[in-house]
């Protein structure tokens, strides 16, 4: 574990030396190059923070009897990191860069507002289209319901006629059977 910690320590030392060197060079750089170096330093500061987090995790895994020495080293590294960040903010960012950053934020905010407005407009259009579709579907349902009512009445009428026709057929069959039986009875009595 301590070998991992020492590896992180070496990486942290190299990284902080590079950051310190770049911070010292920034005031003498032309504006275009200055922006690139500032962005690079910000990335390196993030990398250094990540290394500190890794080192902190390693310290937590070290047995308590050995942890004290590593904890003291971590405190000094965190102080060094804080000093680097303070120096970076104090010496590198002049008013022009702050204004540029603010204007970028404003532009980003404006862009987000425009995108939000466009999304809202699209949503309203979609809702309007959906409302029209729902209204058309409702009309179709009403028409279908009316047609189903008519169909139900027609089917009911047809069913009544079928029942009437069956009743008439049965009645005619009975009358026919009675007539045939009567005719047979008369013909048998005559003979």
TrEMBL record:
Domain T-SNARE coiled-coil homology: from-to ranges: 91-158
Topological category with respect to the lipid bilayer: Single-pass type IV membrane protein; Single-pass membrane protein
Biological process terms in GO annotation: Golgi to vacuole transport; intra-Golgi vesicle-mediated transport; intracellular protein transport; macroautophagy; retrograde transport, endosome to Golgi; vesicle fusion with Golgi apparatus
GO cellular component: cytosol; endoplasmic reticulum membrane; ER to Golgi transport vesicle membrane; Golgi membrane; late endosome membrane; SNARE complex
Transmembrane segments: 167-188
Domain of life where this protein originates: Eukaryota
Main location, first listed in the record: membrane
Family indicated by similarity: Belongs to the VTI1 family.
Complexes and interactors: Interacts with distinct SNARE complexes that contain either STX5 or STX6. Interacts with NAPA and, to a lesser extent, with NAPG. Identified in a complex containing STX6, STX12, VAMP4 and VTI1A.
Protein name per UniProt: Vesicle transport through interaction with t-SNAREs homolog 1A
Species whose genome carries this gene: Balaenoptera acutorostrata (Common minke whale)
Gene from which this protein is expressed: VTI1A
């Amino acid at each position: 574990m301590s070998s991992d910690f020492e590896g992180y320590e070496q990486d942290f030392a190299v990284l902080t030396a590079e950051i310190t060197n770049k911070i010292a060079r920034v005031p003498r750089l032309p504006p275009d190059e200055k922006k690139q170096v500032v962005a690079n330093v910000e990335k390196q500061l993030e990398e250094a923070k990540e290394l500190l987090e890794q080192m902190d995790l390693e310290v937590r895994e070290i047995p308590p009897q050995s942890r004290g020495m590593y904890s003291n080293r971590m405190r000094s590294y965190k102080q060094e990191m804080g000093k680097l960040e303070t120096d970076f903010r104090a010496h590198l960012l002049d008013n022009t860069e702050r204004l540029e950053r603010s204007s970028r934020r404003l532009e980003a905010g404006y862009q987000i507002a425009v995108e939000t407005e466009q999304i809202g407009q699209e949503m309203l259009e979609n809702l309007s289209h959906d409302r029209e579709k729902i209204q058309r579907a409702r009309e179709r349902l009403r028409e279908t319901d009316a047609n189903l009512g008519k169909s139900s009445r027609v089917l009911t009428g047809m069913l009544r006629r079928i029942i009437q026709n069956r009743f008439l057929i049965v009645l005619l069959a009975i009358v026919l059977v009675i007539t045939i039986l009567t005719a047979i009875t008369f013909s048998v009595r005559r003979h």
